[in-house]
Write a structure and sequence with these properties.
The complex is a heterodimer of chains A (about 80) and B (about 575).
Chain A lengths: L1 H12 L20 H15 L5 H6 L3 H10 L7
Helix pairs in contact in A: 1-2
Chain B lengths: L4 H9 L8 E9 L6 H11 L2 E7 L5 H6 L4 H5 L3 E5 L2 H5 L1 H4 L6 H25 L3 E5 L20 H18 L3 E4 L1 H8 L1 H4 L2 H7 L8 H15 L6 E4 L10 H4 L10 H18 L3 E7 L2 H10 L10 E7 L3 H12 L6 E4 L3 H10 L4 E2 L9 H7 L10 H4 L1 H17 L3 H7 L2 E7 L5 H10 L3 E2 L7 H9 L3 E10 L2 E13 L3 E9 L8 H15 L4 E4 L13 H5 L2 E3 L2 E5 L10 E5 L1
Parallel strand pairs in B: 1-2, 1-3, 3-4, 4-5, 6-7, 6-9, 7-8, 9-10, 11-19, 15-16
Antiparallel strand pairs in B: 11-13, 12-15, 13-14, 14-15, 16-18, 17-18
Helix pairs in contact in B: 1-2, 2-12, 7-8, 14-18, 22-23
Classes of the chains: A mainly alpha (about 80), B alpha/beta (about 575).
Chain lengths: ~80, ~575
C-alpha cells in the first residue's frame, strides 16, 4: 500500500512517482502548498477510509509523516 | 457521478487552449477560501465547448473589489460574477450570540446587513455590465435556543431567512442580478457533509473540497444559458424509457406503467417531463416500433401521463434512430445542439453519440426509479429569463405538428390557410410586452429584415419616444395561441416612415401574417398623411427567408432603401382576420 501513497502524492502534485521518496514534502515539491496539501488529505482519507485529526494534518512535513499517521490509523503499509 | 476535485485540478492544468464560438469571462468573489472552484468551472466550460477566462478575487476582498471603481475586478470586465459570502463572517459575533441582543437590536442588525448588501449590488450595477449571481445564506440547523427556536420572536434562523427573502426581492428589481440558492444546495447535500470543521479551521474552507465539483455543476446552470448552450428539446424513446417492457412483445396490457413499483417509476418520470413541458421544453418521440401499437398506448393507456398533444414530433417507425433524430430537428426547426436524447438502449446511445456529438445523450441507469433523478440533475434547461411565450413553447410546437398534419391532408395552400382561421392581433408596445419584444429582436434570425438587436432598455426608450412606433403581433389560429411572434419598429418622419425593424418568428412564416402586419403599418402611415414608406433589407447569413419579402409586396429599390409609395393600393391577405388593440 506504500505504493498507493506515492501514487496519490504524485497525482495531487502532478509529478512523477520516481521523484517521490519519504523525505519529499512542501520544501521539495513546488506545488505542495497549503491548499493542495488539503486536497491530498481529502484524497488519502477517501482512499484509506480514515479521518485524520487537525493535529495530524498540521504535523505532516513529508511523506514519511503521512505513512506514520496512516499506521496510527491501523492502515497496513508494506515496507 | 461527479469527478473528484483532485481530478478537476489536474485536468485543468493539462488542458489545451481551445477555440469555441462561445466564451465566458467569469469572476469569483468570496469571503472564504473557495480555491478549486475556478479549476472545476474551467474544465466544465471546456466540456460544454465554452472558452473560459476567469478572475478569482483575493481571499475576503469582495468589499474592496466591488466598492472600488478601479479595482482589478472591474478591470477584468466579467460576463458573470459569482459572489459567495459566508454567514459566519457576515454575522460576526451575532452568529454565535444572536440572543445576547434584544429582538429590536436583531431586527436593526438585519436591516443594516440588508442595506450593506443592497449597497454592494447598487455599486456593482453602476460599474459593471456583468450579471451578478449572489449566493444566499445557508440557515444552520443549530440554534442556541434549541427546540424553542421556532417559538422565538425574530429568531436566529428568522434573521437569516429575512436576509434571503430580501435578496430575492432585490433581485426582482435588477435584471442583471440573480440569487443562487446556496441554502438549497446545503440542504440537498447535507450540512454535515458541506461544512467540514477541520477544513474550516485549517484554511477557512467553508464548502468541503469534495463538494466543490457539485457546486461548480450548479453554477454551470448560469453559464450555459448565458452562452446559449441551454437545451430546448427532449427526444424520448418509448420501450423501457417511458414505460417498462416492450409494447411489440408484451402488448398493451403487459407493459409496466402505473401500479407496479417499476410502473410507478415510469409515471413519475413522465410527470417530471410534463412539468418541464409546462415550462416550455419541447418533447419529441423517437422509437423503433409498429406505429399503431405504440400510438395506442399514448392515446389510450389509462396511466400514460404524456399524450399525443405533448409531442412536437412523433417518429415511431423502424428507421435508424439517428435519421429519425435529424428528422425531428428539421421538423421542429431547432439545432441539434439544443437536443437532449433519452434512450435506455446503450447501442442507441452510442449511435447518437457518434453521429451527433452535439446532442446531449443521457446515460440512463438500468433502474427506472433513477430516471427522474437523472432528469432533475440536468442543469441544461435553465434560462436567464422567461416570457409567457417561452412557457408555452412545448404546447406551441405540438400544435405546429397538428398544423403540419392538416397541411399534408389538404392539397392547396390557399385552402389550408383558410382552414387555419388565423387571427392577428396587433398591439402597441407596453411595459408588459417590452421583455418579449426585446427577446424577439435578440433571437430572431430568419425572417428579420434588419437583424437589429435591442435590449429591453432600448425598446423602452423607443416606446416612449413619439417619433417611433413599436408594435408587435399576437397570432392565434384554430390549433391555439402562437403568442407574440412578430415585431416592428417604425421611425416616423413627416413625409416618410422608416421601418427600422420588421421580424417574424420562423414558426409562423409563410401564412400571410407578414403581409397583414406590413399592410397595417402602411394603412396607419397613409392615415397620418405620410407619402412613402422606406424599408431596408440587411442580408445576414441566416435571413434569406425574408430576402424577397419587400419586392414581393411591391416595394421598389432606390439606392439603399426599398420604397413604397402610399398612393398605391395597400393589399392585405383575405384569409386572416386582423384586429388592432
Amino acid at each position: 500500500m506504500t505504493n498507493d501513497v506515492t501514487k496519490i502524492v504524485a497525482k495531487i502534485f502532478s509529478i512523477s512517482e520516481s521523484e517521490i521518496n519519504d523525505q519529499s514534502g512542501p520544501e521539495t515539491i513546488e506545488s505542495w502548498d497549503s491548499f493542495n496539501g488539503l486536497v491530498l488529505v481529502d484524497e488519502l482519507e477517501n482512499h484509506f477510509k480514515v479521518k485524520f485529526t487537525i493535529s495530524e494534518i498540521t504535523d505532516v512535513k513529508n511523506v514519511a509523516d503521512i505513512k506514520r499517521h496512516l499506521k496510527n490509523h491501523n492502515v497496513e503499509l508494506d515496507d | 457521478m461527479e469527478k473528484k476535485l483532485s481530478e478537476y485540478i489536474s485536468m485543468s492544468k493539462n488542458m489545451k487552449i481551445s477555440n469555441n464560438d462561445k466564451s465566458a469571462k467569469i469572476a469569483i468573489l468570496a469571503s472564504f477560501t473557495l480555491t478549486g472552484l475556478d479549476e472545476c468551472l474551467k474544465v466544465k466550460c471546456a466540456e460544454s465547448s465554452i472558452n473560459y477566462k476567469s478572475f478569482v478575487g483575493s481571499y475576503n476582498q469582495y468589499n474592496q473589489e466591488l466598492l472600488n471603481q478601479s479595482s482589478d475586478f472591474y478591470k477584468f470586465d466579467s460576463d458573470l460574477t459569482f459572489l459567495f459570502i459566508d454567514i459566519r463572517s457576515f454575522f460576526a459575533e451575532n452568529f454565535y450570540f444572536p440572543y445576547n441582543i434584544s429582538t429590536d437590536k436583531r431586527k436593526s442588525f438585519v436591516n443594516d446587513k440588508i442595506n450593506e448588501l443592497e449597497n454592494l449590488i447598487h455599486q456593482f450595477n453602476n460599474n459593471s455590465n456583468s450579471k451578478l449571481i449572489i449566493a444566499n445564506f445557508n440557515i444552520p440547523s443549530y440554534s442556541p435556543n434549541g427546540i424553542i427556536e421556532t417559538k422565538t420572536d425574530f429568531s436566529f434562523h428568522e434573521m437569516i431567512e429575512e436576509i434571503n427573502k430580501s435578496l430575492r426581492e432585490i433581485s426582482k428589481k435588477y435584471n442583471s442580478l440573480f440569487i443562487y440558492d446556496f441554502n438549497n444546495f446545503v440542504s440537498k447535500f447535507g450540512e454535515q457533509n458541506i461544512f467540514d470543521y477541520r477544513q474550516y479551521h485549517l484554511g477557512d474552507i467553508q464548502i468541503a473540497l469534495n463538494f466543490i465539483p457539485y457546486l461548480a455543476n450548479e453554477l454551470m446552470g448560469y453559464v450555459k444559458p448565458f452562452c446559449g448552450k441551454n437545451k430546448k428539446c427532449i427526444v424520448l424513446d418509448l420501450d423501457n424509457t417511458l414505460w417498462g417492457g416492450i409494447i411489440g412483445e408484451d402488448g398493451f396490457d403487459g407493459i409496466e406503467l402505473g401500479h407496479t413499483s417499476n410502473g410507478k417509476a415510469f409515471v413519475d418520470f413522465q410527470k417530471q417531463l410534463l412539468s418541464l413541458w409546462n415550462q416550455g421544453i419541447i418533447l419529441a418521440l423517437n422509437s423503433k416500433n409498429n406505429y399503431d401499437d405504440a400510438i395506442k398506448v399514448i392515446k389510450e393507456h389509462p396511466d400514460m401521463i404524456l399524450r399525443e398533444k405533448n409531442f412536437a414530433s412523433i417518429q415511431i417507425n423502424w428507421n435508424d434512430k439517428a435519421q429519425n433524430l435529424k428528422q425531428i430537428a428539421d421538423e421542429i426547426n431547432i439545432d441539434l445542439n439544443s437536443i437532449v436524447f433519452f434512450d435506455d438502449d446503450k447501442i442507441n446511445q452510442e449511435r447518437i453519440k457518434q453521429e451527433f456529438p452535439e446532442v446531449l445523450t443521457i446515460e440512463l441507469s438500468k433502474d427506472p426509479s433513477q430516471y427522474s433523478l437523472i432528469l432533475k440533475d440536468l442543469n441544461d434547461f435553465n434560462v436567464l429569463q422567461k416570457t409567457d411565450e417561452d412557457r408555452k413553447r412545448g404546447q406551441m410546437y405540438a400544435q405546429q405538428r397538428e398544423r403540419h398534419e392538416l397541411k399534408q391532408s389538404i392539397s392547396s395552400l390557399d385552402e389550408f390557410l383558410k382552414q387555419l382561421d388565423i387571427e392577428v392581433k396587433i398591439k402597441k408596445s407596453d411595459e408588459f410586452l417590452i421583455p418579449r419584444i426585446s427577446q424577439l429582436t435578440l433571437k430572431t434570425n430568419q425572417f428579420n429584415l434588419t437583424t437589429r438587436r435591442y435590449q429591453e432598455e432600448e425598446i423602452r426608450n423607443f416606446s416612449s419616444d413619439e417619433n417611433f412606433e413599436v408594435g408587435c403581433a399576437q397570432v392565434i389560429d384554430k390549433f391555439g395561441d402562437n403568442g407574440v411572434t412578430g415585431v416592428y419598429i417604425v421611425k416616423k418622419d413627416e413625409k416618410s416612415w422608416i421601418i427600422d425593424t420588421f421580424l417574424l418568428s420562423c414558426r409562423i412564416m409563410g401564412r400571410g401574417i407578414e403581409d397583414a402586419i406590413l399592410s397595417q403599418i402602411l394603412k396607419s402611415a397613409k392615415e397620418n398623411g405620410v407619402e412613402e414608406i422606406k424599408a431596408e433589407f440587411i442580408p445576414t447569413q441566416k435571413n434569406k427567408p425574408s430576402e424577397n419579402f419587400l419586392s414581393d409586396y411591391g416595394f421598389k429599390k432606390q439606392n439603399n432603401f426599398w420604397i413604397y409609395k402610399l398612393n398605391n393600393d395597400i393589399k392585405s391577405p383575405k384569409h386572416l382576420k386582423v384586429e388592432i388593440e
